[in-house]
Every structure is written in structure tokens, then in C-alpha cells.
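Q: For a teaching session next week I want to show students how multiple molecules come together into a single three-dimensional assembly. I've collected the sequence lines for a complex. Could you give me the predicted C-alpha cells for the whole thing so I can convert them for display?
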Amino acid sequence: MAQLILNHLSKDFGSGRPAVADVSLAVRKQGFLALLGPSGCGKTTVLRMIAGFDKPTDGSIEFGDRRLSDAARSLPPEKRNMAMVFQSYALWPHMTVAENVGYPLNVRGISGEAWRKRVAEALSLVKLEDFADRRPAALSGGQRQRVALARCLVTEPDVVLLDEPLANLDQHLRKSMEETFRAFHERSGATMIYVTHDQAEAMALATDVAVMSEGKLLQVAAPAEIYARPEGRVVGGLIGRGSILRLKLPDAAGRALDWLLLGAALGAGGQAGEGPLSDVLVRPEQVHRGTDGISMRVVSCIFEGERFAVTLSLPDGQQLKAYSSAALGEGATVPFIVSGGWRL
Amino acid sequence: MPNTDEIAHSRHGEPHAPAEGPDAEGRSGFKMLARPLRVLSKARRFKWLRLLLAGETADGAERDGEAVPAKLPKALTRTLRGFEPPAMPYATAGDLPKRKTRRRGAGRRFPFCLRGGPGGAEPAWLMLFVFCAVFLLSALPLIRLGWAGFGGLVEGEAARVLFEAATFAALRNTLVTAAGGMLISLMLGAFFAFAMALTDIRGRLALSFAFMLPMLIPPQVTALAWVEMSGPSSPLLKTLGLAPPLGSPQPLYSLSGIALLLGVQHAPLVFLAVKAGLAGAPRDGVEAARLSGASPWRVFRDIVMPLSFPGLIAGAAIAFVSGIGNFGIPAILGIPASIETLPTLIFSRLASFGASTFGEIAALSSLIAVVSAGGLLLQSQALAGRDYRLIGLSGANAAFALGRLRFAAEALLWAVLAVVLVAPLLALVASSLVPAYGVPLNFKTMSLHAYGEILFRQSVTLTALRNSLFLASAAAVGLLLVTVPAGYLLVRRRGALANLLAILIEIPYALPGIVLAVAFILTFAAPLPVIGRSLYGTIWIILFAYFSSFLAVSLKPVMSAFLQMDPSLEEAARLAGAGFLRRMRDVLLPLIAPAAGASVILVFLIAANELTVSALLWSAGTQTLGVAIFNLDDSGSSDLASALSVLVVLMVIALMAALEFIAKYLPGGVLPWRN
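A: Of course. Below is the structure for the complete assembly, covering every listed component.
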């Protein structure tokens, strides 16, 4: 299995601002990469360039030592041996479920017993054996989704692309489909690229998360890594919950901050810290109640089921998110310790 | 939540982009828009030139060429040569290879070449085929016509026809009848559109269906039916004992008669335009105005009227232009009273064939083209981007509850339909059943003699029937060969070339049929280059003219189907490995099949009843149904003409019913009488 490489990939639709600007990325072999970013950040454009529906205006896409696309030429999608789950599922309404799933086999000239066997196998993997003769119109959203997935399974694609596949499903179905995707990835061994704007989905599924914003690639890392050590305000704000504070910190402080440094910066000793202003990401789970902490005013306290989400106001007016196991009265002043932070 | 912005951007934004794929455009030489290009792609932009001059296709050679520029700033040169890849954040696994500008065996990696649009969605020959077909059918005859008209003006011989008194009279008559007809169309069409789109009257579908019928019934049949309904010899009036005394004039043989019938014939066009305009006034917009405290009358004045204004303008312009080009109605009503309009003048000039005939008819039809172009120009000025007709949105149904007035409104609508549609058709049926001219119709005199005559004894009508069926089916099916690829290209590939294609398809439809017929006579009167024979006088010239004039009719349903199809259906087939023809066959064609069926029926419906084009192009043995009805009436056999017309109307209704039957499989906006 070869490695998928995006090499200085750019796409300009002629609107002045490039949709994708100089994205370079090597996807781990047989990896599961989540492309994460807000609407309009260019992640779908990257996916469509990998599939071959769009041609880059600069840079190239390589698979192993094969060049798939560059600004001059582009291997058409039908010759790439890739598969894709579309956001709209893209099931052909005039074919039955089995015909939909088996179509890539038809195109490859496989028919008869081999065709039936492989289609049945793919359908059983998504637990749709009993629906083989139905039309897509007679299926629910989740079932259509699984048909689309089975269509990817039936051949052995090198790369499987998923374009916000869970966007049209309800919360309950999403969870079970996430499981299906994970199992699918383990079984197929294909490289998978998963486009989403839901960071929780990305973290749960992927081996690597790539964050994009305004056409640029900001950071690529494993989920735990990107959660603990995000690069820059955009990534920090996008991944997980947390507050970004502007604090005065000494230059020598490093990036992982502890209560000693933070306490000083927050003015625990009565005066604000020293040094230039920096952005510090503080996760809610890093904020605890503690009697030797800094007094903060409770702005709001919202019940979320397993706990309360609290918004606190620092003495200088900046806001901080925290969790609490008990309800706090709005307006109350409570001492809190900030046990850790990450300088962005 | 679906990430709709981005999807909209990626699905719809791209095709609009002025420069899609620098090489697709550059190679074919249609690259016109400047784009902020990096130096790298600049060389590629002119690759087509190099391909043309040196035939250099090898990828390696191409890439060498890019690396050549030597006088570039150092940093840029380095980037170009790939020595210094800019900082690249956090590749997950493995080191990224340096950008290689030269790779071994580059050709092997690209086993394809010279593909069309971005990503090679369709083969290049497709565009070539569609463009050639549309050019032959649309641009060539019009260029020939313009050339002949211009030549006539320069030589002065044929230009004299423009200053004859008969031409002035015909021009005046044309303008008067078209303007009068436009006013009547506006009143009728707007009344029906408002009533049907905005109020809660019942039986909308039936009313729409009935109101659309006059548009699909051929004009000469409409004229014939009205003549049979009024006047001293009307079997219907005779039977009812209401006929005016013999010898009193037929009131319809007049300018106002022609205008009235043009108005009835083209009212559905106004109806459609206004209704489409009202679709832009969503029901909740009206409801919001009501909640803001506006009375129904104020809502109508402040919300509905402004929104329907573009539709009214568009409808008026279409009705006016259609009135100018109409041949059937002035031919039946005007010729007996010696009232000439421009189309009938062309017809009579062509009948009295002389040395300068070609120049004269070219000049006259150029005059019609100029007047219609003026009308269309006014329309596009008044509309400026607010034309929703092709989209076919769902209407703003039942915004106003009429309450007790509802019954009165329904009665009024049906009464109008009874006068403009039912009564003339009844008169037509009545006169097809009378045994001889002037005999009153009752159960004793009623006979099917006329039907037996046209169906079993008259060879002329049988030939006409056969010709029309052949022409209509050949045109309907043959056009699909062009319109299916054209619809695909127009939807998938936008840009300058696609726009040109759309305009070329639209022009022959917008022009009056008589202009097109003249253009075809001029183009094909001379022997064809290879075969050495002239098409003029054969049935093929009529078929070609039909291809040309119904291109837009055939395209519309197919194109709506392509527009409404999720592009990812085709993309999924591509990723499944299906090449262009394969996915055309397996995925696209089955999905647009219902729309293609509707396209066939619509073209058949209009082509089978066509008179204007075939009136100029027919000769012995190639007459069509329209020509046969006209000739029968002209020679005084009004019973036979009526019988044939009744059959034509029955065929129209049957085909419309067939369309209604498959309506639920069709994309929205294909069937004009449905919302």
C-alpha cells in the first residue's frame, strides 16, 4: 500500500482568494486522516482534488510513485481506484441496493457468481443483506449511508474518501456509524480521508487530524497530540473546549504552563505577571476549585447532565470555562486553581 | 449540521469560476480571462500553442521547458526548480519528497491526454459534436439570411420591396394586430395567473390544463374554429337559431378579429410568465405583509403587483413577438379580407415566384427579425436578470382566501374558458359533422362523411398525415441526439463557450418561424456541396428547419433534468471506474429518461401541428397536416378542414394527457400547466 502525498497543493477558482493555498501533507500509510475545519476552509476542495474532480492550479498529488494530479494533467477519477462516500450518499435511484453496490464490479468486468458473492459479502458487512432488492428510495437515511459504504467496500480501493458522511444523520445514528467506519477502516486497510467540521467526530475516528482554515493547512497531528498541543489560536479554538486567555508571561516560561506560572500571571500574588502578552489555552478540566486559588466571579452555570459548565470571569474581565460537579450561584465569587495551560 | 456553505461552494461555485482549469481552456484556445498566475503555470498556458506548432506532447519535454527560464530572481528560480520546498507543517508520517520537476517515465503515468473540462469530465469530441450540430442548425442559416438581406439592401433591387405601399400596409397591420393581441393576452393571462397562483379556487390543475390548450392547438385550427363559431354560416349558430342572416359579413375577417385570436392564442404565454413571476412571491411573504397589518388589497398592490411586474413585462414581450411571427391566424382570417401582415406577405411573394423573390423575402423577413428583436430587447431591458421561467419554482398557492367570492371567481374563469375554448371547439366539431356547407346540424343531418373522406378517400390528407407523423417523430427523437449531450455540457461546463452554445440554441426559437423558414430556403436552395442536389422541395429541408426551431423546446426538459440531478451521482460512477460513455449509459441516461420522454412528446406535439415553417417549405407530396388544413379551408372545403382539425385537437389532448400521466417522473417546470 502506497502513501498519499499532497505536494504544495493549491487551487484557485479565479475568485481572487485561493480556495486551497499551498497544502502539503503526507498521509500515513493505511492511515485515517480527518480533514477538519470550518465551513468554506477548502477541505472539501482538497478532497475533490484527491478524487480527481478538480484539478489543482499548482502543486501535485502523488500516490506512491504515481503522480495523480498536477496543474498540467490529472488522472481522471475513474482510473484512480478510489472510492467515496458522498454527503448526499449519491446512490443511483434507478438501481436496487445490490446493483448500486455491485456497480464498481460491473465496470471492472466482474459478473456472475463472483459478483453475487462479493456484493453479498459487502452487504453483510454493513448488515443490509435483507435489503439487496430494494431501491434506495425505500431505505432510511442510515441505511442509505451504509449502502454507500458497502459500495466502497466491494472493490479494494487504495483510498476511501468520506465527505461529511454523517452530516445528514441524527445523533444516535452518528454514533453507530462511527463504529461502522472504524471497523471498515480496520478491515479494508485502505487510506481514508474524512472531511468534517465536527471536531468530536474527527477526534473519535481518525489516526491523524489535519486542521484547515481559509485554505491553509494549520496543523497535522494525532488526536491526543493536537488536543494537548495545538498550534495557534485557530487550532486551539477549534479543537476541544477551552478558553484562550491573554496573559503576561516571561519568555523563558516554555509552552506547557503550570499553576506556578499561571497563578503568577493571573495575579494570585496581588500583582499581574511580567513579560510580553501571550495567548494561553486553558481547558475546562484544568480549572479546579481550590481554596488557595484566585477568586473568580461566576458568570453562568449551565447543567449539562454529567456536570455543570461554568463560565468564570477573571479579575481583569477575561472569561474562563470550567466544569463543576455542583451548581454554583451566578454572581458568586469562588476561588479557582488553573492547574495547567498551553501557550499557543 | 450540514456544512452547506462549503458544499454550495464546491458544487456550484466552481463551474461559475471564470477560469476553470487553465489548460482545458488554454488548449482549445478559448482562454480569455486573465487570472493571477504563477510563473509556473504561465508556460503551461501556452502549451496548446506549442502542441499546435511542434506537436510536442511528451510530458518530459513539457516539463523541461518550464525549468528553462534563467533570468528569474534567485529565490523564484529555486522554487521553480524545486530545490527549496517552502516550510511545510507537520507531515504525519515519512518525509515529504522534494518537489520534483523532472520525473522519469512521466508519460507512463498519464495514459490519457487531451481531455475536455476540468478533471476530464467529458471527452473533447463531445463539445465539438454539439457545437458543430448547433452551428449547422442555428448559426449557418441565420448568417445566410443576414448576408442575403444585406446583399439585397446593397444591390438595391430587392430593397425596393421595403418601400412598397403593400409592405407599409403589412407592417402597420402586423404591428396593430400584434399590439392588440398582446393587450388581450395580457388581460386574459394575468387574470388567470393571479386567480390561479394567489387564490384558493378549486380545480387549479384542470383550469391550467384547459387554459394551456389554446397554446398547443395550432393557430390555423384556432382560427378555423372561431370562424365556424361566428358568422352567418356557423353550423353551431344555425343549430341554435342564432345565426346572422346570410350575406352579413364575418366579423372575424378584420384586424380586430386577428388581434382577438392572437390574444387568445398567446394568453397562455402571459399566464406562464406571470405565474412564474409570482412563484418568487412566497406565501409567507404575503402572510408577513398581512401580519404587518396590510389589507388584502394593500398586499396585492404593495407586494404582489411589484413582484409580478417582471412576469407581466416578459409575458407581454413574448405575446407581442409571437403575434408578429404568427402566420396561421392572419392567413385564415386576413387573406379572405385582403388584409396582409408581414408573414402572409412573405407567403404570397414566395407563391408568385419571380427573379427577385429570394432577395425580397430575405428583406421582408429581416424586417420581421428586426421588429421581434426590438420586442425581445425591450423585454430583456425590463427584466434584467429577473427571469425565472426556466426554473419552475412552486407557486405561491392560496395566499388569499376568497370566501364567498370563490364560487363567483370559479364561475367566471370557467365561463371565460367556455367562450374562448369550448365554444370554438364545439363549433369545429359541429361543422365537421354537417353534410354540406350552410346546412343546419341536427340528428338527421349529422354525418361522419367528412371524416371518412379525409381518412380513407383523400390521398392528400393521408400524405399530409404521414408526412407530419414522420417529421414530428424524426424531429423529436433526432433532436435528443443533440440536446442530451448539449444539456449535459451546458450544465456541467459553464463559461464563454457554453454561453455561446446556449444563445445559439435559443435564437431560432425566439425568432418567428417564418424568418427561420426563409433562412432555410436561402441556405438550402443551392445544391449541397457533396451530394450535388438541392434539399429545397424535399421533405428533408422541413426536417432540418424543425430540428433548428425545436432545438430549444427539446433541450429544456433534458436540461432541467440535468440541473436537478445531484452531480455526485455522476461523480460516484466515475470513482466506481466508469468512463464517459459507460456512465452515460448506466447512470445518466436512465435518470433523465422521463425528461427525455417529455421532450419527445413536447416536440412531437408542436411539430406535428406546425404550419408556419412548412407553409413556406412544402411542395407537392411533402405537405404537412398544418398545410393540409390551410389548403382545405382555402379551397372552400371547410367541413374537411374542420374534421381534420378535430382530429388534430384530439391528438393534442391525448399527448398532453400522456404527459400528465408521466408527470410525477418529470423534473419540475417541464410541464407548463403544472406548478
